TrEMBL record:
Keywords: Acyltransferase, Transferase
GO MF annotation, one: acyltransferase activity
Pfam family, one: Hexapep
EC number: 2.3.1.-
Protein name, entry field: Acetyltransferase
KW DNA-binding (keyword) present: no
């Protein structure tokens, strides 16, 4: 049973190809497009305004997406919201990476294909141009995102766009094993850190 809630007559809309983890909460005026992944502990609260997640967006574990009353926000196609990030009343551009534990405040506009570093704090009404690499508290643009960096980001997001299908097909509640089986398979390494990717 998913934690998906009607609020004041607004029922969330979730495309059937997307996956909302049963421990994520989606409330009210929320529209989730195709092949989106919403991780456990995420809260997407459309109680005071509309939240649109376009196709291929992922909102990972323990993220919060919310806003002040009367605002509406969009996370554009292939936006990638890392673990623990907070998006409060901000619009996130196409193919953006928001790093882990980042906070992006009200009326901020994050340009397409930007990368926001982990633990950055983006102040209210900040406008980030397309293809910007942003770090710090307060967040500052330090350089342009290279073709190699955006290729790395895009590949990582594609893993999350495959994850909803994998979850629909294989994720189910079970009783834990009490010991490690002798034939337990090893998981393959199929994605590098940015540093490793750039070093190739």
């Amino acid at each position: 049973m998913n934690m998906i809630y009607e609020f004041k007559g607004y029922i969330p809309v979730v495309h059937e190809s997307s996956f909302v983890h049963p421990l994520a909460a989606v409330t009210g005026n929320v529209i989730i497009g195709k092949n989106c992944y919403i991780g456990p502990g995420a809260a997407i609260r459309g109680d005071w305004g509309e939240i649109i997640l376009e196709d291929g967006v992922n909102v990972q574990e323990n993220c919060t997406v919310h806003m002040f009353p009367g605002k509406s926000i969009v996370l554009k196609e292939s936006a990638h919201i890392g673990h623990g990030a907070i998006i409060h009343g901000a619009n996130i551009g196409r193919n953006v990476l928001v790093g882990m534990n980042t906070v992006i405040m009200d009326d901020a506009e994050i340009g397409d294909e930007s990368i926001i570093g982990a633990m950055a704090f983006v102040k209210a009404k900040t406008v980030i141009p397309n293809r910007s690499l942003v770090v710090g508290n307060p967040a500052k643009v330090i350089k342009q995102v290279s073709d190699e960096m955006i290729a790395w980001k895009t590949k990582g997001t594609q893993l999350y766009q495959q994850l909803p299908k994998d979850c629909h097909e294989t994720l189910h509640e079970v009783e834990p094993l009490r010991e490690v089986p002798k034939n337990r398979p090893t998981q393959e390494a199929f994605y590098d850190t940015l540093r490793d990717f750039m070093g190739k």
